[in-house]
Amino acid sequence: MSRNKKQIDRIVSHWPLIQKWKRSVKNPIMRRLLRSQYSETGLQASFIPVGETVEIPPSVIPPREVIMDFLNRASYRALAAECACRVGGKCKNFPIEVGSIFMGEGARDLHPSVGSSVSVEEAARHVDHALEIGLVPMVGHLMVDSKLFGMKKFDRFLTMCFCCECCCMFLKNMRHIKDAWPNTVLPIDGVSVEVTDKCTGCGTCEPVCPVEGISLVEDRAVMDDLCFGCGCCANTCPNSAIKVTVSPDSKILEELRSRVESRTRID
User: Fold this and answer.
1) What angle do CA 39, 130, 123 make, to 5 degrees?
2) Less CB within 10 Å around the terminal CB: N or C of the chain?
3) Distance CA 21, CA 150 (A)
4) In the chain, where are the structural domains located?
């Protein structure tokens, strides 16, 4: 049975603890306990590159069209009235009312006190607002959401999140999740994040990296190979020294369909 708002609020009131749990996967016992939600069987996701720091060549489908492809194909769409991450994180930077869009027949389980069905047009307006205020879209097959909202048909369920780096479940404390299960949140093929010669070594980007993958080497930011292309570092850099680029032959839509929908269907 799906969970109502009161039940969900009770769970997200423990958000700081939930965020810390992700660090505990170094412990073999905790790794077994969290496997169903954070391993590859319960987590397949990618961030969709958007924003002023992203260079999209003309040959690549624009990010908004990628998002609209999912919304148009979905047999059902439900919009959460609030973002659970921003509620739990007591977000001060973005409105909690910009919630996730759930797609597929499994989304019909969303409790009416938590959200409601929306048309493609209503979902599109929600997407435009989220992008306008600077949130980062992520599409994923997420056991975390299925469990939190009580949605039973995990094989007919997909989430479109609109994430902030200050509160998002997948933009904080992800280093140990990626170490344990590297093929969970992945960059889209052809999307790269590069530190340019404008870097002054100020270190502003270091604390915002979800996988703690940025270090300063000889007064220059250096990224490790765990980067999943969220672009938080580029958005934060005061000198515009970090570029997110998409190669001209990148097949963003095809890759997302193939990987994120590998264990589910939304039509």
Assistant:
1) 85
2) N
3) 20
4) 5-51+61-188+249-260
